[in-house]
Amino acid sequence: MALVLFAVAGLALSASGQATHARTTASAATHVTHAKTPYTAEYAISIVQTLANGNTITRDDTEVKALDSQGREMTATTTTRLSKDHTLVTNVYVIDPVARTITRWNSLEKRATVRTIGGAQVMHGCPTSASATQVHGPARTFDSKPTVENLGTESIQGLEAKGTRTTTTIPAGTIGNEAPLVNTFERWTALAVDLSRLVVREISDDGRGSKQTKELTSIEQSEPDPSVFQPPAGYEIVSQSAKDESTSACATDATPSK
Question: Which residue, among 51, 33, 40, has the nearest Cα to 7 in the 3D structure?
Answer without folding.
Answer: 40
